[in-house]
Amino acid sequence: MSFDANRQITVGLSFWLNKDQTDASIWSNGATQNTFFMYMMLLRSPRIREVILLNGGDATAADVPASLMLGDTPLNIQPMYESLDKVDILMEIGLKMGPDEVARVRSRGAKAVAYKVGNDYVMDVESIVFQNRKGPVFNGAQFDEVWSIPQHMRTCASYWEVGQRCPVIEVPHIWSPHFCEQAMAQGGVRAGYQPGKRGKRVSIFEPNVNVVKSCHYPMLGCELAYRERPDLLSEVYVLNTEHLKDHETFKLFALNLDIVKNHIASFESRHIAPLFLAKYTDIVVAHQWENALNYLYYDVLYGGYPLVHNSDMLKDVGYHYESFDARSCADALIDAMEHHDARFVDYNQRSAALLKRIDIANPANVDVHVDHMFRLLGAQ
């Protein structure tokens, strides 16, 4: 039976928030931001009647804490089990769905999509090898399609296609300056690169929770840059390393570096990126492994800060270096420290072009997601 392409549809995004989560942070992980970016983007489509945050917890819109930084975004939060039967498209995004829930949606002709924002293959292998598994990726839920973002397609597309028993579709990575602006407003700061400073402060924001994003190569790049041009580098802040300070292997790695011996580097806890950028940062050095697109990169570029990175998907912005090559990283860092001020206007223009392409306000991003939904529903 064909689907009327002229009708509006209702989309439900899986979500979890309890009333007692008064300190829930939008900066805790990229998946939380991705859920709200998707929600805010879909609200822009005239082809969608309603977007529902299907909450598996007990919070209502009135319970959403200020720490989620949603500002005046209109929130349509409804209990998961009471509202599943309203949706034409169910998207697993902020909360993992069980087989019965997905089957309930599909039994009446609605469609179910698993939207993947993490490198499940790497995380699953690490969980199995290190025996810290927290739950199965493949739990028997039968989706109509898996949707994922470009940086995970090489390692995970086949993994999902076989394991989930359905097609895997690539969709664009989406972003908005919303949370940067909210963080700055709440923190009373205005983030943005300030030209003219000689000794640069470098920040490394990698989360250090798995091999996908760790601080090791950024630290090595900073080390070589410091050995060659100590006059250019005043401080290196290595964030998200508080839990590593007493790790014997990490200590031996760090204590071998001049930036540590000479007290240039310090090891910090987790911080809200736009606020740390505004207060303590001139340059960001990043490294990833099969995770070439990151919200941190966009936030850094939005502020005009030099982004020294190894993402082959973003070679036209920032200061690119070759993966797993500390010399290349150091060269890119020295280049940024010496010449970014002179390139500031052109740098921001190139960054703005990228950010416009990925913005949730870009009609092309809205349309590609909604087009896929109508295709899945069999629109004629």
The residue fraction in helices comes out at 25-40%
Radius of gyration: 22 Å
Number of strands: 13
Helix tally equals 13
For the residues shown, what is the average pLDDT? 94
Termini Cα gap: 10 Å
Tell me the overall shape: globular
CATH level 1 name of the largest domain: Alpha Beta
H and E order: EHEEHEHEHEHEHEHEHHEHEHEEHH
Specify the CATH architecture of the largest domain: 3-Layer(aba) Sandwich
Q: What does the main sheet amount to?
A: 7 strands, parallel
User: How big a fraction of the residues is strand?
Assistant: 15-25%
Count of domain modules: 2
Strand order of the largest sheet: 3-2-1-4-5-6-7
Oligomeric form of this entry?
A: single chain
Low-confidence stretches: none
Determine the structural class based on helices, strands and strand pairing: alpha/beta
CATH fold label of the largest domain: Rossmann fold
Brief digest:
This protein is of the alpha/beta class and 380 residues long. It contains 13 helices and 13 strands. It folds into 2 domains: 9-175 and 359-376, 3-Layer(aba) Sandwich (Rossmann fold), CATH 3.40.50; 178-358, Rossmann fold (3-Layer(aba) Sandwich).
Task: Write the SSE topology.
Elements: E1 9-15, H1 30-42, E2 48-55, E3 77-79, H2 80-83, E4 89-92, H3 99-106, E5 111-116, H4 120-129, E6 145-148, H5 153-164, E7 168-170, H6 178-187, E8 200-204, H7 216-228, E9 233-238, H8 248-255, H9 258-261, E10 265-267, H10 273-280, E11 283-285, H11 295-302, E12 307-309, E13 319-320, H12 326-358, H13 363-376
Helix pairs in contact: 7-12
